Queue: 4 jobs
Job 1
Amino acid sequence: MKILTYTGLLIALLTAGLFPNSIKPHDNATLTGAWTFVSGSTTTTTIFSDKYFATATYDKDGKTFAGTAGGSWKVDGKNLVLLYEFNTLHPEQVGTSVPREMALKGKSMTLANDQTKETWNRLDDGTPGKLAGAWLITGRYNNGELRTMTPGARRTMKILSGTRFQWIAYNVDTKEFFGTGGGTYTTADGKLDSLVQRMGAEEAQFLEKHGC
């Protein structure tokens, strides 16, 4: 009996030593918030709400915008699966699901496929801002008057973490992309207090929380 116990312990220790960063299944809640990946002068920021995500790649110092992508997402075992509704860098991926092997360790996340391996760092976990989630525009203000609208194939969505935001305008049927913007924000008493643009420009908009 002792031999079996010691053997099992030895196997466990050897396994831990051989595979210290082995990937374990995760649920969606572990990813919600904002993450960043830096490569040279280029920064990529991804915001995950409960169901949706938005990614922006840009050079902050050079004030240039490289591209954006987003849609819905889920965790499937060891994989992060991204279903793209828009993708300016790889438009051929729109409407497809792309899995990436995922590993989480503390505030770091590793994403890998056959060609690349990236290490992302967490910016926030959906706090402290009170507006985290995915929101769809349901109206616009014109001369102080709110004109309501029903979101269709063409939509404008804003995705917020606890400190970051990104808005995106696109058409889910034609796969057209119209524009984006984003940056950081803060809230006071549950309301938007300040907002700093990273890219793009936007009009005053009335938003409803969508999907999460």
Job 2
Amino acid sequence: MEQYRRVSEPIPKEAVMPRVTFLHPEGKSGEVEVNTSLLDAAKALGIPLNHDCGGNASCTTCRVEVQMGQEQLSEIDFDEQDLLDREALSEPWHRLACQARVQGDVIVRVPETKWENPNTAITEAQGVDIR
């Protein structure tokens, strides 16, 4: 009977850390602290994600697509929704990685145009889609 934990015993902190999975060529996944932004999770896992404004919610270069676990992210606020609306990205699965904070397990896709590389900022600024 010792193998079962009593209900009154605290759950170890590491047992409740959410898992974030990034669908990216490397397909990385890892556990993060609750309230970690998706941008910080991406950095910690070595996912190259653009964030031209430095993570200050003044651009949309860190936009990701939530594939599973939308309800496991912080609620979208007015400023984030406004930025997404301006880019015609008002579907609920679009989030800014700098603003979405992890509450539970999530799977997100990093669109190819959002991968961090020297050509992305130039491409977006010129409005040319290079594939």
Job 3
Amino acid sequence: MKNFIKLFVIMYFLSGFVINFVKQPLNSNNSDQEITTIQYKIRSGDTLWDIADNFNPSNKENFINELMIINNLDSYLLEVNKILVIPINI
């Protein structure tokens, strides 16, 4: 019985260590990474795809999704003269 209690205590502490170790990568994503942005004034005829082409990201769909999130856009239609915040290191 004494050995069982010792084994239980050891397993309890080891499981806590393992759980903490496994959770750590989930918490250490790139959220601390600072994103550099610029401001872009929308001109007549601009589309999100054109803007993505101008900034030449490797993944245009991801870039457009990020633009929509950062600028609180709920549509692909853009307002002329509105200022977009554009991340330049996506």
Job 4
Amino acid sequence: MAQSVYLKTLLKPTHLKLTFPTMNTLADLLAQTPPSEEDKRFVDKSMQLSGLIAAAMRRKGLTQKALADQLGKKESEVSRWLSGLHNFTLKSLTRLEAVLGEDLVLTFRDQVATATLTAPAKVQWAEAADTWQPPVRSQQPQRRTVVSVEEPYSLTEAA
């Protein structure tokens, strides 16, 4: 009997107080946890990208609905993209670029647009001698000779 009285008092609602964090407590908790470098980069790049999309839409005179229609998406999805925290796939970015008619994301290291890359050498070969002989054991065949190598080109010229 004493056991049942103990259980009844234990199970009274006054003893079972569940506390849930309030918005202030949750905000305080989040404020105490600093964002990682990865999170900072993601938010920064996402916000930049949404700004580029919005600017391209203005230049083309497109509304969210018009862009959504051209992409076969819902207007709410385009709105989410413009919020700045959508995680785009490369495929969706290239579709967006095609519809908007401009590059949103340049290739991986194009932030330094003036840098040039050395292309694989384009070689012009001299004609082989008219009387080519098979090589003697101590000699290498000299069928072709490099005449010139073209200068390096930039990424913008390659396209």
